[in-house]
Amino acid sequence: MVSGPAQLVVKLLYGSGLRLMEALRLRIKDVDFQYLQVTVREGKGGKDRVTPLADSLAPVLREHLEKVRVRYQNDRQDGLAGVGLPFALERKYPNAGQEWAWQWVFPSQRVSADPRGDLATGAPVRRRHHLDPGTVDKALRMAVAKAGLGKRVTSHTFRHSFATHLLQRGQDIRTIQELLGHADVSTTMIYTHVLNQGGLGVKSPLDG
Questions:
Q1: CATH number of the domain that 148 lies in?
Q2: 201 within a domain of the structure (yes/no)
Q3: 3-state secondary structure of 181
Q4: How many CB atoms lie within 10 A of CB 132?
Q5: Is 154 helix (H, G, I), strand (E, B) or coil?
Q6: Other C-beta atoms within 10 Å of 201: how many?
Q7: What is the pLDDT of residue 198?
Q8: How many domains are contained in the chain?
């Protein structure tokens, strides 16, 4: 079974229909516990979108963020550079990377060099990046092997499950399109195959 931060990431992939990098790039300000929603910034196609945050995941995520806050406070005391921001924002608000709202929801355990360096001086900068996607992928591979599953499971499998399970519950295709961030509904339509399983969705009389 997947554990630790990787487990939370996987639950977000399934519970909110996120791509792996969308989950890893979430910042504190993108999680709204009051309205139980997650805002994805600049997803595929460069668009923002809002998707639900599972009610059952909220308290676990709150507990996780309390631990993240402790690490954040230690980083500030140690004088570590703030998190990286998009170029335009970092130039306009050079200190925003040190604010709590901009921190990663899933920070890396390690501090590493920022290849961009300091945008003003070009000097080397060490900062805390978000969790490496390889960490989640490795945890998934180990869990799948331990469970003895015969099917291939990747981080994207949970996003597919999010869509297919919503369809099975009667959610309309246009809403699912918006939640997934698909530009074209034809991309979302691939999930309708689940409604036609077993001979156009007809239940065999033998099972009755």
A1: 1.10.443.10
A2: no
A3: coil
A4: 15
A5: coil
A6: 9
A7: 53
A8: 1
| Token duo for residue 36 | 């139980």
Output the pLDDT for position 53: 96
Average pLDDT for 86-101: 85
For the chain, what is the mean pLDDT? 87
Domain assignment present for residue 204? The answer is no
Q: How far is CA 132 from CA 19, 92, 195, 208, in A?
A: 14, 27, 35, 49
CA angle, corner 55, sides to 52 and 57, nearest 5? Answer: 95
Residue 108 lies in a domain: yes
Q: Which residues are catalytic?
A: 19, 44, 156, 159, 182, 191
Q: Within 10 Å of residue 121's Cβ, how many Cβ atoms?
A: 8
pLDDT for the residue 133: 95
pLDDT tens readout for residues 114-173: 877 666 666 788 899 999 999 999 999 998 888 888 888 889 899 888 998 998 888 888
Q: Is residue 208 part of a domain?
A: no
Q: Look at residue 70 and tell me whether its pLDDT is greater than 60.
A: yes
For residue 176, the enclosing domain spans: 4-196
Q: Yes or no: say if 66 and 33 are a contact pair by the CB < 8 Å rule.
A: no
User: Across the strands, what pairs with 114?
Assistant: 125
DSSP 77-104: HTT-B-----HHHHHH-TTGGGSGGGSB
Q: pTM for the whole thing? A: 0.86
Directed axis angle between helix 155-168 and helix 133-147, to 10°?
A: 70
